[in-house]
Structure formats: C-alpha cells, structure tokens
Amino acid sequence: MRTNGRDSIMNRAPRWLIAFAVLGGLFVGLPWLAPLLMHWGWSAGGNAIYFAYSFVCHQLPERSYFLFGEKLTYGLSEIRTVWPEAANPMILRQFTGTPQMGWKVAWSDRMVSMYTSLWLTMIVGWILRRRLPTLPLWGLVLLALPMVVDGSTHLVSDVAGIGRGFRDANLWLTVLTANRLSPAFYAGDAWGSFNSLMRLVTGLLFGGGVAWFGVPYLSAFEIKAEPTAMPNPALVNLSPIRDISPKG
C-alpha cells in the first residue's frame, strides 16, 4: 500500500524529534494561552502560566505582545497610566494587562521569536537535513552575535532606569541616519520601532542558528543509536543438517 509524503515522514521521524516537536510545541505555545485564559475569565490558569514563565523571562510589558486589546504593543507611557509602579522592573513585570488593553503574552517579543524559530527550524531542518548544508561554528557565532550585542546593550541601558537609558531614545541612531526616519522608529519599544525590530530579528537569527547548527549532530546521534538489525528468520536456512557420523 502506498503512503503519502506526510505519513512517510512521520514513520521515519526519530523519537527525539517527535518528543521535541510535542514538548517544544507546548513550551512555545503556552505563553500564548495565558492571554486567552485571561480573556475568557479564567485568571487562575492564566496567572499560573505567567508565574511559570517568570523564571525564564523578564516579562516586561513594554517589550511584550498583547492580545484581545486595542494594540499589539504598548509604550511605557501608556502602561504607566494604568500601572503607576513602572520605575521598578520587578513590579513592572507583574503587569499582565486589562480588559481594555488586552492581556500580555507570557514572555517577551524576543523570546517569542527566538524559541519559535528554534522549534520550527529544528523540525524543518530535520525534514530537509539531506539538502541543508552544515552550519559551521563560525556561522553560528555570526548568527548569535547580533542578539548578544542587542541584548547586552539593553541590559546596560536599563541600569540607568527603565525608560531612561540610551537604548530608549537611541540618539546614536538618529545621528547615524541623519534623523531621516519617524521619531516613533527611534524611541521606545512599540511595534515598528528600532528596538522591537531588533529583538524580533536577532531572536529569529539566534534560534534558527542554534537549530541549524544542531540538526546534523542530532541526526548523526540518531544513526549511531540505531540498534543492529537482526537477521530475518524467513531468510535463514533452516534445512536439516545431514548426519555424517559413522554408522555402527
């Protein structure tokens, strides 16, 4: 009986890939479930997800996506109108949203792009592993470097205070571009700003690069881990052995 391409891929998929696809899908998808549960009124379930993901992400609302509200993202000044304690990042991160503004995805925009790209690239990379060229170590470093630079400069900038660092105004960028772009592009973290686009792009590059680099090694491990094939009993010669012992 002939099988279609999807069935063939599923039959050949190693156990680690199936486990990664399922568990990774849950890990990537649960942050999006939090705002959905909050929107449905089940705050206990939504807050449980927010709490669980608070250990892997800063969850700052001005660097997060919102669902079921007026906008996809909100600036710090807009958040301050409903959450005055915006100066302290440990308190600011606790803001999950309002019915009017919508509800925050349980991790930041960079985490969305980084982990989603890692998950998708790992699956697609395994499917295309025979056609996909191997990514050398220096290639992984190049793909990771933009996020290292962007993330570290954000970290240094936040030392001056949330909303008061050099990455909040990006005056250096206005000088480099002769201030030719919209003021909304340079300042803040709202969708379409330089900061939001950099977090999106650098997350995609890093997550995709890690998966691209890792697929060949995981595929090689899969081949080495395959058990030695046992002989097919149907092909073994089971004909009786002739008795050649001398007759008495």
Structural write-up:
The protein has 2 domains: 14-104, no CATH class; 131-224, no CATH class. A hairpin with a 3-residue loop joins strand 2 (97-98) and strand 3 (102-104). The protein has helices at 5-12, 15-40, 43-53, 76-80, 89-92, 109-127, 137-158, 166-169, 171-176, 183-186, 194-225, and strands spanning 66-67, 97-98, 102-104. The protein starts with a helix and ends in a 23-residue tail after the last helix. It is globular and about 55 Å long. Strands 1-3-2 form a 3-stranded antiparallel β-sheet, covered by helices on one side. With 248 residues, the protein is mainly α. Helix 6 (109-127) packs parallel to helix 11 (194-225) and helix 7 (137-158) packs antiparallel against helix 11.
Based on helices, strands and strand pairing, what is the structural class?
A: mainly alpha
Poorly predicted regions: none
Counted up, domains total 2
Largest sheet: 3 strands, antiparallel
Q: How many E-type strands?
A: 3
